[in-house]
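We treat protein structure as text, and this decision shapes the records that our systems exchange. We quote a single record here, exactly as it is kept in our systems:
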Amino acid sequence: MIHIIKTPICLVSLSCTALLMYLPEPTSAEEWPVGARALGMGATYVALANTADAVFLNIGGLSQLVGAEISMFYQKPFGISELNFGTLAVSFPIRNRRVGLGVLSFGNGLYREQAVTLSYSHHYQRKLYYGVGVHYTTVRIDGYGSSGAPGLDLGLVLALTPELQLGFVAKNVNRPTIGQAGENLPQTFCSGAAVQSVKNLIVNFEIFKDVRFSPEVRFGCEFKPLPNLALRTGMANHPSRFSAGFGITLKRISVDYAFFTHNDLGLTHQSSLSLRLGKQPQPPTPEPKPVVDIAAPESPGADSTQTAATMAAAKTPPAIIKINEASMEQLKTLPGIGESLARAIVEFRQHNGRFQSLDDLLKVPGIGKSKLEKIRAYLIIDDVAEK
């Protein structure tokens, strides 16, 4: 916790004192990992960062989202009834950019830390995702007043291939100070990688560094035995801890649970609820293609080459296809989609989960904006097409 006055913390809150006594390194609540999905994977999330919780974990990844998303997180640290830790994150697009807003609260009536974050994120060709955020942190101790300070955060995610992403985030790069004693808010750096080389399995590796203390190594993984079910586990070495959890996704709603252990303080449970929002327009009517009469030629001597060309032109237009359920054979009926692109779409869907928007197809290698526009009219998401 952050000391804003020169007085023993035990005079403020016995619960906070206990936490400080056992934690090997003092920290600010804003540096605690957020989100049950991330915590279930040992707090490894810097290279994924593809949910609204990225407001707190890596703002660069926010531009990976499609549509608006709201996420709520709650934790009672180490089961201490006097303490509550919760966050609310909202992310939404504005003119092809992405804005995020996050609110964090930790503590009780005697000791309270709060932070509000406003972030901006964009991408370059859906390969480099970057963002900047400003947060204002306040600390209040009952009977002693409060103090606050602004901080600046930077983050990025680099999608090298569909199977490999790298991430980096720097927090409080402006070295803000708080309180009469001018204590620095923790300046931290985190870098990591997310590997998805095995079907339905994501493996994460991170190195977290608070400039005041030794580096922390984190490892985590997520496995999806079913499309709507994710199983997670992870570990870290500083302090030594183990975590596990699961997530369930039902269309627009995701529910996540995780726990982690501490050698001295015991078990902590946490849960998250995420809701994806967005318009659901009626499917557009594909423009009809001209129907060519492929009747037999008028004379036996008609050019066979011309007949073959006429039959090819008369190919039936593709039907409306559900992109999240389509097989390779169905995808190959789309204009300009052959064997390799159809396979790439199916494999990307298997590794990354369901497409939330048709624009997500731009993340598939080989599909650019022009090709997407050619096939957009024939694709829908969950029985509803996008304009």
User: Anything to note?
Assistant: The CA atoms of residues 125 and 362 lie 9 Å apart.
